[in-house]
Amino acid sequence: MKKQLLKITIVLIASIQMVACTKSETITTPVVTVSTKVVKDLIADTVLGIAANGMPYSAGKYTFYSIENNEIVPNTDSASAKWDLAFMSTRILTNGGTSGPALGGGFIFTGLFDDLKTISADSIFKTDNAPTYAITAGSGKGWYTYDQLTSLITPLAGRVLVIRTASGKYAKLEITSYYKGGVTLPVSASDAEKLTKQRYYNFRYTYQANGSKTF
Amino acid sequence: MVFLMFELCGSMFKKFLILSFIFPQCLWGQVYFVKDTLSAAGDSVVVTATRSERKLSNLTVPVTLINAQTIQQTGSIRLTDILKEQTGLTMTSGFGAGVQLQGLNPDYTIILINGEPLVGRTAGVLDLNRIALGNIKKIEIVKGPSSSLYGSEAMAGVINIITDASNKTPLEASLRMGTYNTKDINLNNGIHSKCIFYQGFYNYYSTDGYSIRPNSNNRITTPINRLATSQQFKLNLTDHANILLNTRLTDETIKSNIAVSNGGVTINSNGKEHNTDANISATLNYRFTPTFKTSFRSYLTNYISKQELLTISGAPYNDLLNHLFKRLENQTDWALSKKLNGIFGMGAVWEGVKSSRYDSEKLRKENTIQYGFTQWEWTPSSKLIMIGGARFDKNATYASAWSPKLSMLYKMNSFHKIRLSIGQGFKAPDFRQLYLNFTNAAAGNYSVFGSAEAQIVISQLNNLGQIGGLYNNYFLLKALQPESSTGMHLSWEWTPNGKTFFSAQLFRNDITNLIEVQQVGTYISGAQIFSYLNIGRAFTQGLELEFKQNINNHIVFSGGYQYLETGDKDQIAQIQAGTVYTRNTNNVSARLTMSDYVGLPNVSKHKSQFKINYNNEKGVFANLRILYRSKWAVNNTNGNQVYDNGDDFAQSYYTLHTAFGKEFQHGIALQLGCDNINNYIDALHLPNVAGRTYFINLKYQIKQKPQK
Questions:
Q1: A45: pLDDT confidence band, cut at 50, 70 and 90?
Q2: Is residue A138 located within the same domain as residue A98?
């Protein structure tokens, strides 16, 4: 069954590529295809400086993002259905529940991004209910781990954020780095560098615009 | 001036010696032991492997023997100095200097002094810097599970430090000065008659410590003052009986000034740590017939550690650990025939710990153990020795343990020997795992409760409405089982001539019931609650090679190598099931494959050492030693709970050491040395390795007058 599915996918991908290669616009594709987008260095309330008490400070503002349109949404639209995800340091909101007015929700899938081809029917989507969130917060509990020894935040491998967007469609998302340039800093990096280069989200995602749970 | 004083002392002791001859003369000059049944000329005697005196060449299990000359010529002053130069042993840092034996953590090796265990472990580690080497006759290291003779902790092996009660040196004094204002002063004195032996040992050690972190005032090794003394008496009552009395006291004060800087704000803390380790033992040996003897041993030890930390802001932090251990034991040796020797033993242990990390530091948590053991040695021919033994430990506060062991030696001919041993070892749950009651207010208010009290404490909290949720692990909490291992050692020894020695050893340990910290629930606030469960399974396996080659009468080459593989069996099962992930070079998640799995942390795959020794008749000696250790995993940075190639490693390294010296006339000896000549430093992973250090050691010894 799995092998068959794989074959079908390969055929599909092959046909998509062929389609992409043909310049003719007369061919109407019967299959709605999905593509994987890569987002680099999305700022999520970066550290502005060190306060007198020794603690880092920042503006304390979310960055709102539209998965559907692959763009940042202005903060003035925070009460709308224009955004799907909001980022502030390690916290990620979905547009629903206590976080927003729309249909958003999600959960964290354990497995590989490429292996998640269909969101299984029995999956339970959670909605934000502060202080708990659909995308579970906390080191080792959700999508990242914080190392007290090295002060580094590393996205957990094999975790896929399954997102229900503001309009009730589905996406899968994998965070690849929390640091500027997409490169997790070496353990030996200075404390200052570890502070100033963090809170830059690097991720890839696949959005299914037709409303189905299959990517 | 100093020497003059020593001379004076010496003459006083000489008078005492003469006086002591007035005491009734005893006929019997040495302890009787059931004799070795095989003849092997000119080799050393080992007691740890069989709990009876056996020649090294007749042992059925792998043993490393370190003699006093080796200790002196390498310039070793603490136990750690000499253990790090042995094949299969690796020093660890964190909670003091511990020793990892064939890949197993310091928790799993029992440390004995004259056969009696040392107590006072912090997080399972017994700080080996506590042990001064100035009066040591030899160190015996038995590799492989030895619980069949020694009970708990003898899971990876046994390190037995043997001091010399019958040392006949009337007086020996030494002064050593080294880098970082390190001073080590030793005084040994001995008095003996035909029936009384006394040896006293005094050691003072102090160091300013050092800071090897750049731009840091914090000393990784903090200033230490340590005073150690031991007194040993041996009294030969009749030619059938003798009494041994040993006392030992180590007292150390460690000062630390810690400055924590965070964004320009510095918080200073002044810390003081005071540790006292006291032991006293009394033994009566009695021989009924030449083939039947018995000994009664009583032992008491107390380790008290107090830490005080004062910060300029916040409440002072105090920590207390007080471990009291008492033991009574009888051992009877019976040689039924020339081919069959038996040992029977039984004993009782009472121990208790008071700690500020338990519910009350005023209440002592207690445990009692009753045990019995037997061992049979059968020598069917001059080529074969077989030993079988077993021990049963009945514990009051956790499950009991059986420890069988079988071993054999086959002497193919005078050049080849084969040894095979299979045994079970165990480590009892320690008091921390049973009784810890600790909430970390500094880091999120999480709590850890020892398994013996976790369910009671948590249900009380639940009644108070403090508990947010209970995990399945909570319902699995029960009396902890001892951690246990099954070990197998197979070795081949080749001595083609008197100048060459070669040995190869294969070993494998399978460990079950490892006690691990697991989350059992959460508070209402979401803070985690942890306790201890028997869940882990692991293995260690590898190969050890050792050689020694006498080039001529003066020069000896020797070396050793260990190849080591380790793994957590549950993690391996997960990796094979494809449920463990890592990141590839593009930061994209991928399944972890076994080829990227590195096994247990803090374990190096390769470790080796190589030594050249020079000695001549004129009392001149010199040596050069190289120690190598390959990289080891220290930190699971990618958060997949498994140590793999995507994690943080300490780099492989080597260090070079040398020492040389000469014995002059009139008992004066001078030694110079340099450790870590290549100045290797890794402040993060090897805090115990200082940079290059030098030392000079001056020794004066009154030689024993030849007796008639």
A1: very high
A2: yes
Residue whose entry in the numeric block shows the structure tokens 């009945």: B394
In a shared domain, residues A7 and A95 = no
Bridge-based pairing state of the strands B365-381 and B340-355: antiparallel
* Of residues A81 and A19, more confidently modeled: A81
B638 → chain A, closest CA residue = A154
Q: How many separate domains does chain B show?
A: 1
Provide the pLDDT for residue B20.
37
Q: Report the alpha-carbon distance of residue B433 to residue B448 in Å, rounded.
A: 9
Interchain pair A154, B635: CB under 8 A: no
- Assess contact for B518 and B533: CB atoms under 8 A: yes
What does the radius of gyration of chain B's CA atoms come to, in whole angstroms?
A: 26
Q: Nearest residue of A to residue B443 by CA position?
A: A148
The pLDDT value recorded for residue B29 is 32
**pLDDT tens digits, residue range B452-478?**
889 889 989 988 888 988 888 888 888
* Mean pLDDT to the nearest integer, B192-196: 85
d(CA B23, CA B30): 17
Q: Which two tokens stand for residue B685?
A: 């992973």
Whether residue B587 and residue A110 make contact (CB cut-off 8 A), yes or no, is no
Q: Which of A1-5, A50-54, B550-554 tops mean pLDDT? A: B550-554
**CA distance, residue B263 to nearest chain A CA (Å):** 4
Does the global pTM surpass 0.90?
Answer: no
Q: Do residue A54 and residue B263 have CB atoms under 8 angstroms apart? A: yes
User: Is there a domain that residue A213 lies in?
Assistant: no
CATH of the domain at B490: 2.40.170.20
Confidence of residue B64 (pLDDT cuts 50, 70, 90): very high
Q: What gap in Å lies between CA B93 and CA B99, rounded to an integer?
A: 9
Test B635 with A110 for CB contact under 8 angstroms. Answer: no
Q: What's the number of domains chain A is made of?
A: 2
Task: Write phi, then psi, for B293 (nearest 5 degrees).
Answer: -145, 160
Q: With contact defined as beta carbons under 8 Å apart, do B108 and B253 qualify?
A: no
Residue B315 has pLDDT above 80, yes or no: no
The pLDDT of residue B157 is 95
Residues A142 and A165 in one domain: yes
Domain that holds residue B423: 2-702
> Using CB atoms and an 8 Å cut-off, which of residues 440-459 of chain B contact chain A?
443
CA distance B471 to chain A (A): 15
Torsion-angle region of residue B683: left (phi > 0), alpha (psi -120 to 50) or beta? Answer: alpha
Which two tokens mark A185? 């800093």
Which residue did the predictor score with more confidence, B183 or B3? Answer: B183
Chain A residues with a Cβ under 8 Å from any Cβ in chain B? 50-56, 110, 112-113, 140, 144-145, 147-150, 152, 154, 156-159, 174, 176-177, 182, 184, 187, 202, 204
Q: Does B590 touch chain A (CB under 8 A)?
A: yes
For residues B91-115, give the mean pLDDT. 91
- A157 and B637: CB-CB below 8 Å? no
Please name the member of A54, A156, A158 whose beta carbon is closest to the beta carbon of B262: A54
Give the pLDDT band (50/70/90) at residue B39: very low
Domain of residue A16 covers 1-32
Tens digit of each residue's pLDDT (9 = 90 or more) over B497-522:
889 999 999 999 999 999 988 889 88
Query: Encoding tokens for residue B629?
Result: 């250790």
Record: contact A158-B591, CB cut-off 8 A: yes
